[in-house]
Amino acid sequence: MFDTESFLRFIASNVDRGEFIQNYLSERGVQSAVINVDGRRHIYAKLPRSGYSATFRMKTIIAHYDRFLQKDAAQVEPPEFGANDNSFAVFCLMDFAARLAKFKCIHNVRIFFTDGEELASSEEGVTAQGAYKLASVIQKAGINDEDIYVFDCMGRGTVPILGTSILPRTVSNAFAKKYNALEQGAKAILASLGGGWLNLPIPYSDNAGFLASGIPAVAFTMLPQDEAQNYMYALQNIPGLLEFVQNRIPKISMPQKETLKNNLPQTWRLMHTALDNFKSLTPESFSVTARILDAIALRKTI
Known about the structure:
- By secondary structure, this protein is of the alpha/beta class.
- It has helices at residues 4-10, 17-27, 83-100, 119-122, 130-140, 173-191, 206-212, 225-237, 241-245, 254-261, 266-269, 284-298, and strands at 31-37, 40-46, 59-64, 109-114, 147-151, 159-164, 198-201, 218-223.
- Strands 1-2-4-3-5-8-6-7 form an eight-stranded mixed beta sheet.
- Helix 6 (173-191) links the parallel strand 6 and strand 7 (198-201).
- Helix 3 (83-100) packs across helix 12 (284-298) and helix 5 (130-140) packs across helix 7 (206-212).
């Protein structure tokens, strides 16, 4: 059950979100560790060793807990923000960790709550992103061959979206093969739920940092059905929208930018504004996200 009272405390503008996550997990029997990388605090959920087996592939699930509010000189910081981007996914993942702590079977799931995802859009690009630096640490630890799933903006609607990624032509055949296998596995997970889902281009999240580090990763998000349908139509009929979504337009005029932005789903236009609040969320999203996470835990590949 979604803990509304705790969630409202989490999205308050003056909360220490990293400390909140650790306390929330601890109260539910899950210990955690902070991994400090270049001033960013990534949080790792410590799950019982009984849930792991070397027989099957590891699965790492990630949600960023930092948030970003686009401000102008006249704007006063609202009492809450960042409800969908990305507090909701973080909450779903914290509850998932609590379930896994009591899970009696092998799940092979690692959980990270990352810091610094918003830097990719607000500062110098993907190499400034917290996940990019975390990926380097993971590589140095010898963790290079596992499935990585990113959850971002899961709090509006009931249509799961698996983000498509356009891999550079320069990537190796080995990398492309691993990424394609991961993507096909993610599609199988969504198909196993029996409901509708879509594979569409979405704004990059922490998956961008891992991809840039040479580690395959896929991202899930959620949209209301009408927004998803309108977005599919816009992708087919609005020139430049695909490139705009995936940040592949080096120079763009302000009028063109506004035109493209107005054809994005309303859910994404709320991001980084005071309107990304609790009232903007849809309660049904929680159960859909929980089902995806459970399906990942139950999936076993060698």
